[in-house]
């Protein structure tokens, strides 16, 4: 009865070994890459010109967080008070509080949205159509297009 388990394990090991042999027989040790012209930096390196500098550029003395801290620290005492921290918010609030009463009404708060709606309502009907609504879409920055050469098919040398 034990011989069945031994025979099954041996058969499984033989199948795994046969699979590895077949798989490795089809694998190529070194891939064949298409021949392409040298890029500009490679051409410069081949010509003896080194396109890269010898040393990496140095970071500025003040880190980004130090600059951000200094923007808030108006009196330059090395500490940011609550009033200094909220100063930007107060300026933004003051821009919205058009009548200067210290309170924001809904109309003051929604002024930008109302202006956007009014600008989109080209026929001044009080409602916007699909075409008019499309003009309210946020403007996205154009991404630079990368001009890559078309891929060339790889040449296979295993046929023959």
TrEMBL record:
Molecular function GO terms recorded: calcium ion binding
Region: Disordered, residue numbers: 34-75, 121-160
Residue stretches of biased makeup (Basic and acidic residues): 61-75
Ranges of biased composition (kind: Low complexity): 41-59
PROSITE patterns given in the database record: EF_HAND_1, EF_HAND_2
Residue ranges constituting the EF-hand domain according to the UniProt record: 60-95
Superkingdom assignment: Bacteria
Name by which UniProt lists this protein: EF-hand domain-containing protein
Source species of the chain: Sphingomonas aerophila
